[in-house]
Amino acid sequence: MNQGIKTKNWKLIIIAVGLLFMLMPLFYSYYLAQKLSKLELTKVELFEKTLREITNTSNLNEDMTYEQEMLETIKSDLQILTINRNNKIEFYNFPENSDTASLVRELKAHGPPPLESEDYIIYYKYPVILTWLSYFPVVQLFLLILYAGIGYAVFNASRREEQNRVWVGMAKETAHQLGTPISGMMAWIENLRAAGTSAEDQKRFIDEMEFDVFKLQQVADRFSKIGSQPELIKTDLVEVLVNCKTYIAARASKKIRFEFPDHATNSFFAQINSNLFSWVIENLLRNSLDAMNDSGLIRCEIRQDSKWVNIDISDTGKGIPSSQWKQIFRPGFTTKTRGWGLGLSLGRRIIENYHNGRLFVKSSEPGKGTTFTIQLPKIS
């Protein structure tokens, strides 16, 4: 299944779950409204029964105090209009100056069905809270849709901005990766064109040009593997790390010291793609160089436990505030005046997505240095 289909399926799932969350309050509010309407009908029925008992009592000496009190209690919460068998109309809890005919028409048109008995026809009106409850789901649905629309717009804008940063960063990273070997080849060509070049120098120039061509092939291979699943091979990590150190040290200040494991006496193996893994290490080493003022120490240590092979790369540079430990892995985030904020983001993607490992800041203290840790699954 390609990435587009996966993304589409996830969008459909999110939309379905969102609709479910929006419909649940509607059904629950409808359920509450039905319960309240039944409760109002029960109160009206009790009112009608009590009123009928009082009205139809023939014994004038019978004590009806209890019934009268109940009637007063019930009707205090109700807006009721009664029509008895003699068409006498009485209403309760409506404005005293209400027009009876208009009130009857309004209750017939907009009120619940009347309660009819042998003695009375009773019209009533639902309380305001029930009216509010009936409108509440609509208001809630509108607010949820508005909130979802704003969230979707903000998310899309943020995603587009991040994509733009990634594209700009990738373009600059490509130019940077290609620039060094291309510049070297142009210099060697000029040297070959110079008059009086000896055969020995020509051979040396051609060897250097071959190395630059190899670097161009390596860069092309690195970029071609982004977005696809690269092949992982059991590799001696110490040898790869030493090769990266040799390449970077040749382009660093002579005052920068490197302390790396000796691949002649140490061996730690893991399943990696050497080209992509070297890209991550080179980016980390370049960051260490940028963090130091042409002097300092870059140290690499390897250790393993029951689950991981841990690679610590430390420098004595300016350090990273703890508040930025997570931000530095976001595309486009950089503390350099000329950086484009893609190296660490790309490095984490390579380690986590392609090597099933982890890349994180182990420790850092402003003014003293930083340690990055790469964790790779140990070969069982």
Task: Provide an overview of this structure.
The chain is of the alpha+beta class. It folds into 3 domains: 3-126, no CATH class; 133-222; 230-377, 2-Layer Sandwich (Heat Shock Protein 90). It has 8 helices and 11 strands. Strand 1 and strand 2 (89-92) form a beta hairpin. The longest helix is centred in the middle third of the chain and has 66 residues, at 128-193. The two termini are 30 Å apart. The mean pLDDT is 81.
Short description, anyone?
The protein is of the alpha+beta class and 380 residues long.
Search tags:
380 residues; Heat Shock Protein 90; 3 domains; five-stranded mixed sheet; 8 helices
Give me the CATH fold name of the largest domain.
Heat Shock Protein 90
Shape: rod-shaped
Question: What radius of gyration results from the CA coordinates?
Answer: 40 Å
Mean pLDDT: 81
Supply the CATH architecture of the largest domain.
Answer: 2-Layer Sandwich
Poorly predicted runs: none
CATH hierarchy class name of the largest domain: Alpha Beta
What class, by secondary structure content?
A: alpha+beta
Query: What's the story with the biggest beta sheet?
Result: 5 strands, mixed
- Order of strands, main sheet, comes to 6-8-9-11-10
Distance between the termini: 30 Å
- Put simply, the count of helices is 8
**Integer tally of domains:** 3
